[in-house]
Amino acid sequence: MRRIAASDATVDAVVAGLERDGYCAVEGLLPPDGLAAARASLAEVLAATPEGRNDFEGFRTQRVYALFAKTRAFDGPATHPLLLGVLDRVLGHYQLSAPTGIQIGPGEKAQFLHRDDQIYPLPPTYPDVVVNTMWALDDFTEANGATRIVPGSHLWTDRPRLGVILEYAAAWLRPQENHLLAVPREVAAELPERLQELLGYNIYPPFVGYVDGRHPRRSLTQSVGG
Question: Which residues contact 63 (CB under 8 A, 6 or more apart)?
Fold first, then answer.
């Protein structure tokens, strides 16, 4: 696997990796204190999160949906300048689609290989509409069920493996999760402006997504503030 140290990572380098290999691994983008805070923030949430309901979710896997309603630990990662720079280049206009914390438990079987953009009925030659980022909060290894980039089998260990997916999609597509309902308005009103936009309080040029003819962020502020 080709890797780039966070100190050496540039938008050009990451985009080149995506174009060449379909992926790019950036090491150390989340500093140790941020990593510890992210893991700690999910501990209480995971304690109240059931395991999956079907083969795809994984019967021994916990999935934290409505992530931005339950933790503030990923506000920074979701709006990291390197990530947004890559998204600007690859998608142009975009939004968060399916942000999810995922803890894979011991004995879980591997998912079938798939592309997350397959949910959209678009031809294979269509320009990219989805970019996935995986934030590894534990070591991702072949033994503990790391995300597969190329075909391969898995051996499972006796400890869970925790990570978070921040998936982005072109802003004219409907995201997988309805963030406007998943994240309470009073929570969304306190978020950084760029994160509000990524959660759907935004306009796709020239005017897709308005509320009563106005920018949706104004409606959010007025609704929460009275």
Answer: 49, 52, 57, 100, 101, 102
Contact 134, 163 (CB under 8 A): yes
For residues 200 and 176, is the Cβ–Cβ distance under 8 A? no
164 membership: H or E segment, kind and range = strand 161-170
Q: What is the mean pLDDT of the chain?
A: 87
Instruction: Give 115: exposed, middle or buried? Use CB within 10 Å, 0-12, 13-18, 19+.
Output: exposed
**C-alpha to C-alpha distance for 77 and 79, rounded to whole angstroms:** 5
Q: Which fold has domain 3-225?
A: Jelly Rolls (2.60.120)
Burial state string for 176-212 with b = 16 or more CB within 10 A and e = fewer than 16: bbebeebbeeebbbebeeebbbbbbbbbbeeeeeeee
User: Could you read off the pLDDT of 158-215 as tens digits, one per residue?
Assistant: 566 787 888 889 999 999 999 999 999 999 999 999 999 999 999 999 888 988 888 9
The rounded Cα 33 to chain-centroid distance in angstroms is 20
E strand or H helix at 48, and its extent?
Answer: none
Question: For residue 196, which phi and psi values (nearest 5 degrees)?
Answer: -55, -45
Among 9, 74, 77, 38, CA closest to 162? 38
Nearest to 182 by CA among 50, 63, 68, 52: 68
